[in-house]
Batch of 3 targets.
Target 1
Amino acid sequence: DYHNFATELARADYYEAACEILKQGVIVYPKDTDLLADYMMYAHKCGKHDIAKEKYNQLKAIDRIDWSWRSFVFSIDYYIDVIKGQKGDERKATETTIEGLIIEFKEQLGNEEKAYLAEADFLEAIGKREEAIEALKKVVDDNTVAVCTQCCLRYVDRCLEKGDYDEVIQYSKKGITMTEEQESVETTAFWYFWALAADHEWFNENLSLEEPDKGSARKVIKLYDTMLRLEPNNRYASTASKRKRMIASFASIEIPKDETSHDVSQLLQMIKQAQN
């Protein structure tokens, strides 16, 4: 209850209030690694750096076998934030601490893909972006973790940023094939990125043609339709609806009126939600 209440407050950026809840929580449960990790991170977020360091030291004193994934992730995130602005030996010492935490994370929770996401975060933080991307790819390719949707999605996102559309399509398909009882990422994201990549390739091949390829255009539209039927978040839905209409219009493909009406009602719903 302490953890859940503090987490909800933190999600609303009420870090100081979250710290007050956790202050009481660690009195009742002084060895609870999740509470200590929460307290450390939220204290750091609201500028209570002495308390954050104190809570990390208390957490560090507990055997790693009792650490949860949250303990490792928050500790690594904490030090990634601390490293900003550091130089020389101080920075090297912090990097060594983070590297040690990542090694222990993998040793204790080897089937937890968050260990590999944390490693990618660290590599990006120290300017090794390409190494971070390759590390994510390796997790997926080597089946290091059987179901690694978060690593796969992060890799897809980075490939899209680089304009590597073939990789986006290939690994979006891999992400879709991974099934989870409780989704750790929004599955619609893979359909969305696949559609965006296919969309780019279609326009790249057809934009200068007088008679664009309607067959391949319909395939891209089908990808967008599949994603839209899965009730994606508003940002995905808005972009997908717009891109779908662009392709249909350029390829002279008529979209059924009921679908156009759906797009309008979806827009009105988004406006209503924004007003609330």
Target 2
Amino acid sequence: MRKTLDRFRKSLEGAVEAAWDQLPEFTLSSDVEVPIFVIHHGPTAEDYEIVCDFQQFMTVNQSGFLSRPSLRIWAGRDDFARHTFARHLREAFSAQFEALRDEHRAERERRRWALPGVGDVILWGLSLTGGVLGSLLLLVATETGRTALDRIGAIVRGTGIGRLTRSSSPEQELEALIEEKKGVIDAGLARLDVALHRELYTYAWRDQRPGPMTGMKRDAWPLPDFVRDRMHD
């Protein structure tokens, strides 16, 4: 039995390594929207919480190939400082994505015989902490064209991300590189458009004179229940 398990493990490691070898030539299969909800809990423009919805992105990437996250910002007011918001968004995105990854890993442990797809290997198989993986996704999301793909491919091959799937050793070079790119990511996030959602607007301006409605998307879908729960918790 042990020999059978060892052969299976080596076969799986070979498949993972082959997936990494193909990543520099990898083409993203599609853009998948990741809604970002800005919930204003206080009376000022800077008093908000950021909630990210990864459900659709997770479902698509579990099906096989890697998709590009397309960020969609929903808020009740848009007069907050963009550069400060960009940093908060990067931190919230990374922390919430890492929490989701931990849940996913626990689920895979319960289904240990399920073979991973390429998206699984890239998003869930990395032994990265401190929001590094989330920052990689944001780099892809905020850069367009082939540049982002080439950069991610160079990061993978040049710093040995593939080896992290077989080792718990920290990858200092990768962490330093992502730290260097945080300014680039924040600049891209600061340029994102903000759409007003009626439910978030009503909540943000409660007990105040309502603010401008410019940018209101009147045909937007109702807020997810988990966002409403965070609003009224």
Target 3
Amino acid sequence: MSVNYRKISHCLERSVRHIFSSLFDDPTADEIFDVNTIPAGHTVLIEMDGTLKGLLRIRIPQKTISAIAKKMDPNAKGKKAKEREEDIAGEMGNLIAGTLTNQLQFIGHSIRLFPPEFGEDLIGLTTFYENVSMIFNTAYGYLGIDLFYREKED
């Protein structure tokens, strides 16, 4: 386990809470420990490079993404709302990854983010990288976050 594991975990948790409290008016978003898996839905992958290299995976169940989509565009109905869900999932990934990158700079990391991709392909990172895995319960539903990372060695 890396020396900064606890600090990185804290940055990730704080980033998710910030996005939900600031942008979605949900101060109740909190990490939970009594749920091991979340239902299928959208999976967003954001690759990172820099002093911390790896991948952020955000899993958003269908129920959760539908509730967030309704919050972001209350006028969208039916097919139009459904079409926007992948865009909204990608934007959620960008928001969380950007906030995480900002938080990580305070513990000495400089990170470049790549555009979000969709799917489950983890590019083999699950074996050789550290992993922070969290599930959050929000007013909109569950959200799973996995950070696979390796810190740059001096």
